[in-house]
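Chain A, query sequence.
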Amino acid sequence: MYSSYSYRFALATDHDLTLGLSAGVIDNKVDFSNAEAKDVNDPLLYGQMQRKVTVDANFGIAYMWKDLNVGISVPQLLGNKINYNETNTNVYTTLKRHLIASVSYDLTLSESAEIDFYPSVMMRYVKGAPVQFDINANFSWKDILRAGISYRFDYAIGFNIGAKLNKNLIAGYTYEYVYTNLNSYSGGGHEVMLGFTFGGNSGGLSDEDLNSLNDRIDQAEATNDSLANELNKKDAEHDAEIEKLNEEIEILKLETETGMNGIPNGNQDNSEVRVENAADFEDENGVTLPTGFYVVMGAFKNKDNAFNLKKSFAGKYPAAVIYKRGELYYVNVFYTQNEASALTFAEERRKEQPDVWVFQLK
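Chain A, predicted structure.
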């Protein structure tokens, strides 16, 4: 639930600037009980619904020259972190700060029928993600009825419709359909919008004042469109965060299976050493690994995440990514033929990071 405020002032003839700010709360839920877990003894995997409420804010600025509108906005301005578990399990999601730039133009298609066309392009940037863009086409009839379609690159398509109910009240509806693989996690989005304009007088508005009011409504709708698109994008990011949480859960299960939590494993000769078949592993060049002892400081389903951790070890350890075919990518920081040397090295590394274990490949 959000509350928004905007203010518009003139810079010069036909040059205006609008500032906008919205603030509200987000009710976020994750149902960990739906996780498909192999380790039924892990209390994290069978918790109840986790629900967290946090505050959020958005800021925007727009410059208008005649029928041209250029805007910049910063959704999720606070960048709050949502913790789902109060322990040190590091189960959380972050409302990442975004930067959005948009350009739109007002074209009159028919003066007699009073039909206008509003094309717009929007680009979105968030740290750690590729730049995205949206293309929108909206139509207006007599500034009373509005309808449009939108395309979000490599994500979704949508449409919207709205009406001016009287001089002060407007209403609208927006639907978005996700056509990528994320549609398994996100069923699309519905948004209903009501807007009320304060001001005016009992004698009615002049044509000049009405045109000015219409301009403000147009700007408010453009701002609302940007916020609506961002909220839908945020849904997709939450889906991505949930996928990341699932990956972390897989790693927790792996640690449990390998004895990191003190649970015995029948495949191990030593409680700190996991015995594996060397033929199941390969190095970064696809070559089967030699037998021996490998000290591992990270495991990922995503290959890029494994290589990012390897880069973070540059200058500290001769790190390398090893891959168990069909399963996970591991970040190995030490190799030896001597078990005692591997265990000693692993124990030293646990002073920096507790999640360190040893593979013996035979």
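The chain is about 20% helix and 45% strand. The chain has two domains: 2-252, 265-361.
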